[in-house]
Amino acid sequence: MGGRSIAAGSMTLKGMVKHAIGSGRSVTYMPRPGDGAPRGVTLIPGDGIGPLVTRAVEQVMEAMHAPVYFERYEVHGDMKRVPEEVLESIRKNKVCLKGGLKTPVGGGVSSLNVQLRKELDLYASLVNCFNLPGLPTRHHNVDIVVIRENTEGEYSGLEHEVVPGVVESLKVMTKFCSERIAKYAFEYAYLNNRKTVTAVHKANIMKLADGLFLESCRQVATKYPSIRYNEIIVDNCCMQLVSKPERFDVMVTGNSLRFSFPPQNNDMNNVTPNLYGNLVANTAAGIAGGTGVMPGGNVGGDHAVFEQGASAGNVGNEKLVEQKEANPVALLLSSAMMLRHLRFPSFADRLETAVKRVISEGKYMTKDLGGVSTTQEVVHAVIANLD
Amino acid sequence: AVNGMIKYEEVVIDNCCMMFVKNPALFDVLVMPNLYGDNISDLCAGLVGAATLVRGIALAEAVYGSAPDIAGKNMGFECLFHEKFGKSNCFTAEWCSMLRHLNLHDKADLIQNAILNTIAEGKYQTADLGGKAKTIEFTNAIIDHL
């Protein structure tokens, strides 16, 4: 402890230690030389409220002088494919931040959000749903992470009309994809000190498909004996989620629904197949405050794309866009996740703290949170609250 | 037929889940395919309190003899009718629904009122409603209210 002067009589040693522990600053992060070089991030403003909220992120990053620069690309939901130059940019930068892309209903055109995930093999989608102080919801102590398999399941996109009036839709589940999502979920839980991983499934009905998913989860669970593993059927999961969400921690799901239920402590991860994951994530987001505030990201072996947590295809309505009242909180928190992913923890902390301060003060909140502010007003409040 | 008097809307299932937990009053009657129905009905049940308080009718089954006018035959859909004014124990409530379909409305009303009065009284409630009564005690209480 050389170099520190102790003012005689002002504080005992014990008092100093206590003060230091409670001072709010953790043991410092030691970077490698050159870690501060600016990182390129592909930015896709998207449709609807997308441009508004991505602009918000750009403004806050600038105010923080964060070591990121954005390469903006226009992609819209009505395009046939994601342009090749955009994919090239993401492959080069390895990281992308995007607003939502409007997904057409029916019509045989696949969602560009889904296309992007498949092209870049972003096989894990993660949504963190948690209570924000200052935002009262029906439930407290919610802290759920939903990890959803992103590439197969009901989202395989394989449908055909057998005869007029009869359509077959294929749900494809593979051991390969189920195993890697289970591994990701357990690894996430291990790295983030989460206590439980819950697999969400409907194996009582889809015995082979979801049965395969469960088998994979069980196998991976044996390699993490310190993490509790349990399973829950998706319909029960929905019910528990709306009545006792504090029981969940990390949930892992196949493509549709992601739910996980943690035991009594709020430390759960859920792992789910694709469709369940989608539904669970959205329900959890609704429980904890809405899609306007929940952050999320998609990650694969080589790339990561960050976007608002739930409902990527929901780009808001026209009125929201016209009056510029979209909620930037979700994307701001997702960009904080991105900063951590890029190993800029201090910038991530500052951004997150500023956003949480604005929410807890309650003065500047957009309509979906019960306030009357515009997007810009919230952004200015966040910038004003930056350390 | 009441064409034009019933508002029809479509909603994507993930958005629906989110809206449901934020403001269930937005919805009235929901119709959806099998898996979504399974999940949404349990979600509703969680919102109102317990699975046993929600009644469901499988309209595709020919149990009641004649299918109701509003549903086609063998559609394979599960409709959830959420009563705004009361909760009913699910099994007895299904009997009520059946009695109504058979046009025995007065008998159905008798049973429904008995259930509502029992729950409102609060003396006999099963574990899922927050009480300690056994099923037989709850049932006897309903019978007493008939």
UniProtKB/TrEMBL annotation, chain A:
Q: Which GO terms describe its molecular function?
A: isocitrate dehydrogenase (NAD+) activity
Could you tell me which InterPro entries the record lists for this protein?
IsoPropMal-DH-like_dom (IPR024084)
Q: Which biological processes are named by the entry's GO terms?
A: isocitrate metabolic process; tricarboxylic acid cycle
Q: Name one Pfam family in it.
A: Iso_dh
- GO terms under cellular component: mitochondrion
The record places domain Isopropylmalate dehydrogenase-like at 40-382
**What's this protein's family per the entry?**
Belongs to the isocitrate and isopropylmalate dehydrogenases family.
Protein name stated in the entry: Isopropylmalate dehydrogenase-like domain-containing protein
Which organism does this record belong to?
Arachis hypogaea (Peanut)
